[in-house]
Amino acid sequence: MAGCSAEKGPPQEGEVFQVVDGDTIRLTGGFTVRYLGIDTPELTSSRSFEKGLAQAAKQANSELTRGRKLRLEYDEERYDQYNRLLAYVFLPDGQMLNEELVRQGLARVLVVFPNIRYQALLILAQQQAITARRGWWRELPQAQEPFYVANTRTRRFHRPACPGGKKIAQPNRLILKTPLEAYWQGFSPCRRCQP
């Protein structure tokens, strides 16, 4: 695959050179692709459950992409702050890899505005994984707070005492009873307070 030039834009397809983790690949030609709309656990997690899921997500990513030509579809933003391509990745049969990893319970929905083209599809896949108790959802998250505060603009949810949650403007503020309710609606946990 030829390199990207400013005139041609980012590649529309590619083959995997390396699977970095559950939601990141490197293509032949040097491009690093971060899957849009999802987040998998970090391989460096200190929590054994998350570390096991991270390894399972990387393995599934490898098995699904190995030896296949992938189609890349972009949303509003093409690159992240690390200069990685941001893409929805499609297998030759048309299956979206981002969606499949969520459906298997190996990834959670991570909505980052303005990249919301497939938000509803990814949330539906997450609801299916929750219902089937797959992967991340094998044990459903339990409420540890009397309520949670969600931001409808950023799609993050917080513990009530979290400074990030306290700063949410009233029109964007939503009160949720449990973390499961937040995940069901496609909210992602605040990295600071980790609800």
Task: Give the class from helix and strand content and strand pairing.
Answer: alpha+beta
Number of helices: 5
* Fraction of residues in helix: 25-40%
Give the strand order of the largest sheet, numbering strands 1, 2, ... along the chain: 1-2-3-6-5
Could you report the average pLDDT, rounded to the nearest whole number? 94
Give the termini distance in whole angstroms.
42 Å
Largest sheet: 5 strands, mixed, barrel
- List the secondary-structure elements in sequence, H or E: EEEEHEEHEHEEHEHE
Total strands = 11
Rg over C-alpha atoms, rounded to the nearest angstrom: 17 Å
Spans of at least 5 consecutive residues with low confidence: 1-6
**Shape, per Cα inertia axes:** globular
Describe this structure in words.
The chain is of the alpha+beta class. The chain has helices at residues 48-65, 97-103, 119-132, 163-166, 179-184, and strands spanning 13-21, 24-27, 32-35, 38-39, 69-73, 85-90, 108-109, 148-151, 156-158, 173-176, 188-189. The strands form three sheets. Strands 1-2-3-6-5 form a five-stranded mixed barrel. The protein has a four-stranded mixed β-sheet with strand order 10-8-9-11. The chain has a two-stranded antiparallel ribbon with strand order 4-7. Strand 8 and strand 9 (156-158) form a beta hairpin. Helix 2 (97-103) packs parallel to helix 3. The termini are far apart. Mean pLDDT is 94; it is low at 1-6.
